[in-house]
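Recap quiz, item 2
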Amino acid sequence: MNTSGGQQKLEEVLSRTVSKRELFFGFLKIGLLGFGGVAPWARHVIIEERRWLTEKEFAEILGIGQILPGPNTMNAAVMIGDRFQGVSGVLLCLLGQMAMPLVIVTSLAVVYERFAAVAEVKAAVTGAAAGAAGLVMGTALKMARNIKLTPLALLVGSIAFVAIGVLAWPLVAVVSVLVPLSVAAAALERRA
Amino acid sequence: MNVGLLLPIARVFAILSLVSIGGVNAVLPEIRRQVVDVQGWMNDATFANLFAISHVAPGPNIIMVSLIGFQLAGLAGLLIATLAIMLPSCWLAFIAGRVVTRWSDQRWIRLLKEGLVPVALGLILASGISMMRTADQDPPAIAISLATAAVVVFSRRNPLWALAAGTCAYVVALRFGLLYHP
C-alpha cells in the first residue's frame, strides 16, 4: 500500500518537502540503526516510516549510487540531501549518517580487548551478524516485489545476484556488462 | 599523536575513495595492501581486529577506514581518514545527482535509471548472501538469517525487533549447547 499504488499516491510523494531538521534526524537514525549495512535501514526509514520517496525512486537513487565510487548508501544520502535541501541538505545527511557510527566504533575499539573473549558476547555478535544478513536479503526481495519488475528486469537482477553472490565474479566487470544490457532491456520493454 | 602521518593518510584514502566502486568491501584487499604492505602502518593481526570491530558497529562500512585513522593518529587521524575517504566519492555523487536531475526528462536518463534498478537489487541480494556465508556457520544461525529475511518481507514493523530477537536466540542457543562453535 505504501508503494507505486496509483498516480495520486505517487504525486503525493513527489510533491513532498523534507525539512533540514527532518533530513538530519532521519539520517541520524539510519546511521544509528545501520547494523550490518545501511541500505535496509535507509529503506525502512525513508520509505516505510517517513515516506520521503517511493520504492522506485529510492531504488533508482541506490542504482545510481551503485555505479559510482563510494558506498551506494552514502551516495544516496548525497543525492537525497541535495534533492530536498541543496548543499546544506547534503552536509546534514552525511553528518547525520556518520555521527553515531563514528562514536560507537571508536568506543568499541577502546573496550574491544576486554570483551572479545566472553563467549556470550561472541555469540551475540554472531547472532546479530546472521540477522543482519537476513535483513539485507529480505530488503532486496521486498523491494523487488514492491517495484513489480518486468520479466527482463527480473532476469537481469537474477544474473547480477548469481554473478556476484554465487560465482563471486569481479564487481566492476559484472556491472559494466550488465548495466548496458539492462538499459537495452528497459528500452525494448518500453517499446513493446 | 603522529602529525607526520596525517598527509599520507589523506593521500592513501582519497585515492581509494575514487576507485571504490561497489563500496569499501570491493576495495578491502587494496586497503589491506596499502595499510599493511605498502605503508607498513600495522600488522595483519591489528588490521583483522579493526575489521572485526568496524563490522560490529552500525553505519556505512567506510567507518573501517575511520577506525584505521583513529588507530594511527588519534582523533585527528579519524577525522582526516574519514574526510579523505568521503569527499572525493561524495563530490562525484553530488555532480552525478545534479546531472541526472537536470536531464531527467531525457529518454536515455530515464532508461538508465530504470536499467540500474534490477542491477542494484541483484547486488543487494548478493551482498546479503555473502554476509550469510560469513556469519552462518551452523543451523541456528541459518535459521536466524532466514527468519529475519521473512520478517522484513512480510511485515512493515521496524526490523530492529527481528534483529534483537535473533541476537537473543543465538545467545540462548549457546546456553543450551546447540552451537558447533561455542
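The helical segments of chain B are 6-19, 24-38, 44-56, 63-102, 107-135, 139-154, 160-175.
Chain B has a mean pLDDT of 88.
End of item.
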